[in-house]
Amino acid sequence: MDGKSIFLLLAISTMQSNGAIYLTDDVYVSELFSLRVEPRMFNWTFQGLTEQFQYRPSLEGYPDLPAWVQYMYSHEYHSGFLYGTPPERTADSEVPIEIIALNKQTYETKRIVLILTVHRKPPPRNVIQMKIDNLNWVHMMDPGRIENLKNIFRNDLWQESRADLHIIFMDSAIKLGARLPLKPQQREGVVVHLGSKADFSARLLELQEEVKPLYKITSCNYKRTSVQTTFENSGFKLDWCAFKLRAADDDITAMPHHPHESFKPVKGSELKTLYRSDKWDAPMKSEVPERNYSDEFAVSFAIPGMIFVLLLSILTVILCFQHEKLRDDDSEYYFDFLFNICTDFFRLKKSYRQEYRPVQAVQMVQYSQSQSGLEDNRTGTLKSLKDASHEEGLSLRSASPDSYYPDGSPGIGNFYLRPKPPLYKPSSGSTNSTMQRKTGPGVDI
What we know:
By secondary structure, this protein is an alpha+beta fold.
């Protein structure tokens, strides 16, 4: 746009109808238009709060904007921006853009309908493509900065374009595929296309020859040219690898950053064939294609199944046909006699159980050492051995090793638990003790 504020142009044609504000603006084919959406358009005052206002633009009666209209919100300026270049197919028509605004502090909503009246204009014959590294797209939305860029060409490099030089296309370099800067405080860059019907000047052609060796490089912000000072004095730092001239004979729509076919000359007979509507209509249910899931399930099971069968076949070949090559004599000997070792062990254990016989415990009584009561003690001892009760014998058997080892472990018998015999201490007259025991009166044998 020109140096005049777009808001002042719109305010002249403001109308009130059904609670909505209707604004009109004149735009031209193949020329960039931009509109700053800010609170004063809705009679609101910005109170310095971050993200106080929210805007949602769309084509009136539809959920989205036309394909050639872009909207971006700037957190730096706390405003939204509508911009775009009308294509040839929209000439002599009106495009209503609806903007819904929300005040998040009071939850008040307002509605504005912006009617873009598209006028026909001949497309440019020659276009200059450039990339500015030290600015963001929102900075180039300033009309004063756009005029400074135009003046560099109109007054110095391309004086023949003074009458009709205008911005054709402008967008963020990041949005067009460029990489984000390494430092967040650095600028993202903006791509700008300038067009005119005038022929290129000799100085522009010389500049193109100067930077042509750089076209094989994607980006080069270190390169300086003969017009470097001219752009830097106006606040622009260009990436000379992206500086290119497109003549009228070239296909302008094939430019890397060209968004649509708006610059391609269209004849009247071809206009209908190239026409496409910007209005979105929901498809009917019968027009929606149906998806067949049976094929997808078959593929999802067939591929893993084939892999499993292949791996199983390889494993079978290795184990069956390669078994002879993997023979180990020690392992074969061990496995051949493993069963025999087990049977021998259980047979030996069973034989130990059959050979084991419990032995009755014998009670040993120590002789008294007193000489006077020797005879009585001998008699009492013999009686105790004869008259030992059966219960006492059972109690002695119960203390046998079988009670401690119920499983009858072999190798453990009564002789392991048998007490040591008492020490025999002979006394005087012990040689005749036998005879006295045989002939003594009152001895019961």
